Amino acid sequence: MARASTTFRCTECGWSNAKWVGQCGECQQWNTMVDVTEGATGIRKVAPARIGAGRAARPITEIGAESVAYWPSGIAEFDRVLGGGIVPGAAILLSGEPGVGKSTLLLEVASRAAALGQRVLYVSAEESVSQVRLRAQRTHALQPTLFLAAETDLATILGQIDQVDPHLVIVDSVQTVASSLSDGLAGGPSQVREVASTLIRVSKDRNLPVLLVGHVTKDGTIAGPRLLEHLVDVVLHFEGDRQTALRFVRAMKNRFGPTDEVGCFEMTGDGIAEISDPSGLFLSRARTPVSGTCVTITVEGRRALPVEVQALIVKSQAPQPRRVVNGVDGSRVAMVLAVLERRAGLPLSTFDVYVSTVGGIRVIEPGADLAIALAISSAFKDKAFPVTQVAIGEISLAGEIRPASNSKQRTSEAQRLGFSTIIDADAAHLREAIRLAFAGSTVERMDIPDF
């Protein structure tokens, strides 16, 4: 028999260590290690169970492929991210920063599902039923088949599920529910593991879809043990700047569909509204050409979106010029600046460079490299490109223009939106792309030296 031992476990991620340390070695959080006494256990042998005829393993070629049955939630953008709709028996985890609108979105999902004739149980472990009712009244989400309960005890929630017998369960949030069968406070690794595993087991046994809300830490990861993300079938992330009305739902994991889809929403005074065609959200309203701007076509999942990249170049007074980015990858901007200086002859090392996107969207794909480079070139020369021009392409360190993925889809979307000039990999080098970009404008061409 092994003796009882004391280990130290992180309350944020569940990482354990034999000795106490001030900083967790897994999540890098400070002062989160607490001592946990593990009881004496012996080595036990598990006897093999008898396999019945119906559970015997069969060759994979003899097993039929069962199609996944989706039922719509009533919100097309939410169904797009899920891969077509809600799957019976699916466990879905929705994470996001505080105040971004997770509860508002799920209340709208509950209302739409109830309007389609489904019985929905909305369990709020953070608000009272009167507070949820006030929000539902403001967002016009009152439905007779939408049931509310304010519970923080797991056993009581299971009792509510037995009594209501719903078609959909929403728990807001999993970090605020506690089980009497597990030690520790609500939100701890052991409690989150027990609550999530129990709800997921109920979901699978009853063929009941369950939507769980998950808190995030200050670095954007889901709070609690990483086992939570492995247990659920779908992991969604709700993101957006709280200073703007635009919101995005991204699929980080999906066992029933693609993981690169994104849904667009807008926060309004009446709640949250889906945006089925967000083509004009990420473009400026300027009718005349403005220097330092260039439009590109990005691909989010199966959706092509036009995004305007803006740049500003200012003479630096500091020994080290500033590089400020918003909505784009800072490392890719630094690479584009180096290629512009070395391969295109633009002396940018003594200028402050500011690069941003319009509308709050974040673009991290390499297909926007050419648009970033052209926007910086336009700002450096203070000459504007035509408003009917887009740039699509990846830039190599040698200054070559590589084609972006899904180039046909990007080109079709650009033509649909009225862009007549597309600068892409047909321009073999960055110098040629800059010349082509300025060739269509009424201003003089840039003086780009030849190498």
UniProtKB/TrEMBL annotation:
PROSITE patterns: RECA_2. Residues 67-216 form the RecA family profile domain. ATP binds at residues 96-103. GO terms for cellular component: cytosol. It comes from the Bacteria. InterPro entries: AAA+_ATPase (IPR003593), DNA_repair_RadA (IPR004504), P-loop_NTPase (IPR027417), RecA_ATP-bd (IPR020588), Ribosomal_Su5_D2-typ_SF (IPR020568), Ribsml_uS5_D2-typ_fold_subgr (IPR014721), Rubredoxin_2 (IPR041166). GO terms for molecular function: ATP binding; ATP-dependent DNA damage sensor activity; damaged DNA binding; hydrolase activity; zinc ion binding. CDD domains: RadA_SMS_N. A motif (RadA KNRFG motif) lies at residues 253-257. Keywords: ATP-binding, DNA damage, DNA repair, DNA-binding, Hydrolase, Metal-binding, Nucleotide-binding, Stress response, Zinc, Zinc-finger. Residues 352-451 are annotated as: Lon-protease-like. Gene3D superfamilies: 3.30.230.10, P-loop containing nucleotide triphosphate hydrolases. It holds the Pfam family Zn_ribbon_LapB. GO terms for biological process: recombinational repair. Belongs to the RecA family. RadA subfamily. The middle region has homology to RecA with ATPase motifs including the RadA KNRFG motif, while the C-terminus is homologous to Lon protease. DNA-dependent ATPase involved in processing of recombination intermediates, plays a role in repairing DNA breaks. Stimulates the branch migration of RecA-mediated strand transfer reactions, allowing the 3' invading strand to extend heteroduplex DNA faster. Binds ssDNA in the presence of ADP but not other nucleotides, has ATPase activity that is stimulated by ssDNA and various branched DNA structures, but inhibited by SSB. Does not have RecA's homology-searching function. NCBIfam families: sms. This is DNA repair protein RadA. The gene is radA.
